[in-house]
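hiii so um. not sure if this is the right channel but i have a protein structure encoded as tokens and i wanna go backwards to a sequence. like what aa goes where. can anyone help
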């Protein structure tokens, strides 16, 4: 992806992208998150091979959920869902997603529903 296209997706100038690449400007956490979404990679992509603390599952959170939260499509889904203010529409969206998960042959939605209770 070109600098111009990435800048367009982020709503900034390509010069700002160049400053990020050169290290002239720092990238904040929320901007790094937006870049990961624009590039369709998990945020962990930017830290592969980095020395330091090994990646671990979140304390008290099952590994599949932790993995899902590192998936850019999960983040996109959560962002879109958070924009829905009407509770009945939110519930319908959950029902649709659960139906899709069920049709895909997974019971993961039941596991998550039980944990939410």
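sure thing!! here u go:
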């Amino acid at each position: 992806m070109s600098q111009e296209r990435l800048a367009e997706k982020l709503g900034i100038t390509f010069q700002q992208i160049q400053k990020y690449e050169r290290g002239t400007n720092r990238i904040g956490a929320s901007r790094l998150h937006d870049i990961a979404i624009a590039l369709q990679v998990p945020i962990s992509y930017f830290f592969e091979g980095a020395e330091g603390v090994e990646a671990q599952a979140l304390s008290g959170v099952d590994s599949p959920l932790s993995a899902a939260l590192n998936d850019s499509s999960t983040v996109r889904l959560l962002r879109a869902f958070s924009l829905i203010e009407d509770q009945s529409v939110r519930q319908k969206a959950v029902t649709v997603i659960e139906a899709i998960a069920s049709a895909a042959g997974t019971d993961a939605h039941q596991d998550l529903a039980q944990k939410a209770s």
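oh and The mean pLDDT is 80.
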